[in-house]
Design goal:
Elements: E1 4-8, H1 13-28, H2 41-56, E2 60-67, E3 70-78, E4 88-96, H3 105-119, E5 124-130, H4 136-141, E6 145-155, E7 161-170
Parallel strand pairs: 4-5
Antiparallel strand pairs: 1-2, 2-3, 3-4, 5-7, 6-7
Length: 178
């Protein structure tokens, strides 16, 4: 096994292609990340093209975990919050390639997202995850607190409704010194 490198991605056709293929694989495996199976390549690539453009504007940070040249995971840190919530950020689109799960990749991505959120002077992180086969337990092990559950929130990729669990965590923002 090669070491995992985590980087923030910039817009590029290569990145959107790798991310689109990962998204399709995760959705096919049942990952509830906002898309239905089968997911068309064009739709997946369009989503990531737009997400990377938002990253270029500073509205989000798209983190990628690479093992060598292979994209094995991703997590987005959403920074574009309403004016009355400049202290908050959201974790979204956590995905790990099914063949690479259980190796600490997701925890490393969350750790890097928390570090970057602190650098952006955010003190509260929020996220949601599917009630069925979601990652609530994983996030709770990382110190996130369960705020509640909304039933029948979304369709699972292969059909049928699932609820969503809302979680939050306070972090210490990095303060800038003069």
């Amino acid at each position: 096994m090669s070491p995992i490198a985590i980087v923030a991605l910039s817009p590029s056709p290569r990145h959107s292609d790798h991310l689109a293929r990962l998204l399709i694989e995760v959705v096919a495996d049942g990952g509830s990340v906002g898309f239905m199976h089968p997911l068309a390549y064009d739709s997946a690539q369009r989503f990531w093209h737009d997400a990377l453009a938002a990253a270029d504007r500073g509205a989000r940070i798209v983190l990628a975990a690479f093992e060598g040249e292979t994209l094995v995971g991703t997590l987005s840190l959403l920074l574009d919050c309403p004016p009355n919530q400049p202290h908050r950020a959201e974790l979204a689109k956590m995905m790990t390639r099914p063949s690479h799960r259980g190796r600490g990749i997701a925890a490393a991505l969350v750790g890097e997202a928390e570090r970057l959120a602190a650098q952006h002077r955010r003190s509260l992180l929020v996220l949601d995850t599917a009630s069925e086969q979601g990652a609530a337990g994983f996030y709770e092990k990382l110190g996130y607190t369960r705020a509640g559950e909304i039933p029948d929130y979304a369709f699972k990729p292969h059909g049928g409704l699932t609820g969503t669990v809302l979680l939050w965590k306070r972090i210490e923002p990095v303060t800038q010194t003069a």
